[in-house]
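User: Hey, my collaborator sent me this sequence without any context and asked if I could get a structure. I don't really work with proteins. Can you help?
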Amino acid sequence: MKLIVGLGNPGPAYEKTRHNVGFDVIDRLSARWNIGTKAEKFHAWFGQGLIDSEPVVLLKPTTWMNRSGQAVSAAGRFYKLELGDLLLLTDDLALPTGRLRFRMSGSAGGHNGLQNVIDHVGSQDWCRLRIGIGEPIGDPANYVLTRFDRDEEPIMMDAVNRAADAVECWVQHGPQTTMNRFNPDPAKGG
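Assistant: No problem. I've predicted the 3D structure and written it out in structure-token form, which is a compact way to encode the shape of the chain:
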């Protein structure tokens, strides 16, 4: 069983904001693999199904971004998962808009949602896929709650598709292959 968690904030006011790109990737995976995410459990919306033949749980915490660890740890305990079975999808201010970066471990890098997961899980040794939302204009706390500009929308649509591809690669081939395929900058031919 693999646990795939998209970080974001619940409610229509936050849909399609920069901070909710993790939710967007979960929605894309849900549509691709016909895994509904309307059930409520673990302080989250979730669904269980298969990606190829691998059982997965798709999770969108409803605890608000900065308390995402509650949902992650509750689902992890329920399914008795190892840290290697966890993948978090989240926004990243330090990456250019649409750029992906897959890592097998690491610090929160100032991201409160990631820090809360680290605190609840008790480790930072689990996979995460960061999706670039661009450098903030003005206050970062306000910037992450804005929607993408019209010229950024096609970039982010492609990024969400590539992120879903990266999740599928992780499920099928593991973290090292996923890093090799998805970390190079596609704009530079890599």
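In plain terms: The CA atoms of residues 53 and 172 lie 9 Å apart. You can pass these tokens on to your collaborator as they are.
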